[in-house]
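re: that complex we talked abt at group meeting.

here r the seqs, copy pasted straight from the sheet so there may be weird spacing, ignore it
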Amino acid sequence: MKATEILAWLLEENPEHLRRLWILADQTRRKNVGDAVHLRGLIEFSNYCRSHCLYCGMRRERKTIPRYRMTEEEILASAKEAERRGYGTIVLQSGEDPEFDAQGLANIVRTIKQETSLAVTLSCGERSEDELAALKEAGADRYFLRFETSDRLLWKKIHPGGEQDLAHRLDLLPRLRELGYEVGSGIMVGIPGQTWSSLVEDLLWFKRLDLDMIGCGPFVPHPDTPLGREFFSLEASPYRKGDQVPNTDLVTLKVIALTRLLCPQTNIPSTTALATINSEQGYRLGLQRGANVLMVNLTPLKYRSLYEIYPAKAGIYASPQQQLQEVKNILLSLGRIAGQGPGPSLNYEERRQSQGQLWGR
Ligand code: 5AD
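got the structure back, here u go
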């Protein structure tokens, strides 16, 4: 698909025409990755963060949330509970918390891999290549690191203070692949300052990076962050029209559908942020328009509301049983089935196979 065609779909407003996009994305999803929806158990193990991301409610400058770190025992207990409940994968997510150095985290991953049959996805920010290698060595299967936007200036603006830049983040993704990870990335839709043409570029980057997992959600303004405040002050201004991408469920669904068309064999979640801005239909519409993965929050309830990336996050008060029941109801109503086992990305499996052939294995 060419850039012009992507842009035309992003700007399409006619529901009759959009129906074609939804059907194409759904058919492509079914043909490539089938009807199984892989459920991932999410464990948010620390909300400490050394970073300053202007959009995030867990940014270092935010003094008004209590910070927590789960102990190794708590993380292991949550992982075992995930396995008992039938999950094949856990996602260990955190802020960029230096207390969890590579060695500490590697020990946790190693124990989980020894004591369970779970696949382990890490989503804990930028780390050095040595650390990433040590974590892979310890048994981590997948790494998830969004690049957020491919607009270099916007990236710099919303990630102040660090030495890192967009180029570094984009370089890290192929490095993760070379280390043997299944690699995930993604963006936010509707960041203040995000233009349609940069969103087209984001989608082209997904393809170029040959990603195994792609997670996209709307930007959800957090009133206690600089970008959240900027959003609310711009809300009424004409600047929000024109070239500004709106942070709506509709644009997010177009991005999910186009992602499926561009990267047919990738695992694509129907994201929590999407379900946050459309609590009635978010998860369901994502699954109908290209997604094949759902994340279920298994963070112990006492910590869950403290993992406040953005406000009113979907599912923060539901018990694991309630959430699983809701998910099962959604799948049943869509005629879809829960995936069994770790549910790796087809993109990754095919890459491994072709590499195996290349190396004569
Ligand atoms: N709205 C939506 N998504 C957000 N994230 C962080 N802050 C927000 C926000 N305000 C997303 C980022 C990050 C992921 C962990 O959460 O894309 O990579």
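couple things i noticed - The first helix runs from residue 3 to 11. The first strand starts at residue 36 and ends at 46.
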